[in-house]
Amino acid sequence: MAKVQIPEQTSSSCSLTGCAKKWLLRLTVFYVLYLICSWLDAIKDRWYVFDPPFLHELAKDAVATHPDNLDGMIQHIVTNLTDTYPASAGIVALNTDSSEWTFNNAGGAMGAMYIIHSSITEYLIIFGTPLGTEGHTGLHPADDYFHILQGEQWAFKPGALEMERYTPGDMHFLPRGTAKQYKMHEGCFALEYARGWIPLMLPFGLADTLTSTLDIPTFIRTARITGREIVNNLLIGKITKSNCWTQLFRSHEAIYFD
Known about the structure:
single chain, alpha+beta, six-stranded antiparallel sheet, four-stranded antiparallel sheet, 6 helices, 10 strands, globular, disordered C terminus
């Protein structure tokens, strides 16, 4: 007796319907995440505490007050920051241990950094090297303000026939989504401030360590310090308080420098 073949059309139809539902769900989730990320990106300036013009003036003041004395400049910057953003206010957490330096390899360049502040939307560091270095700036989802304290930095972007040159007191501004080649000459150090989505910058800052130098102790130290400072700022509620603090600070900015 011949076997009756059961049509597979119904099964195939159900399979296609289930696949379509899965993809519809995935696209819906992706779209919702896109809307959330777009909304957060549009309001991220509410979570900034530091003011770029203030930091530029502070860097220039440190250079003028302590010429050719890098340690004096760093102490000047940290002291003024802690006076301006006191811990008692509970607005922003600062790392005042200026002996906490760590190597940083990124974009082919190597130097050392002291992390003064790190949070979800901002970081503030001292970066440099007495030996000199050169590399790629990286392409970041954040604006970067590089205040030269000592030495000299050169920069170049495709299409430019002449280099950019930055000396003590100058600020090298790198807008979000742009990249350059840069060179820091012997003894160049800077106060670097970035504002944007800082966690998205971490792969660039740590990739060379994992794929080239394999300096795992430095990787652990960098991750520990960065993570600690981000958590400290989350614990004091920086995200919820920073907008109010920025408004208050800007109203007193002129008084501070007068």
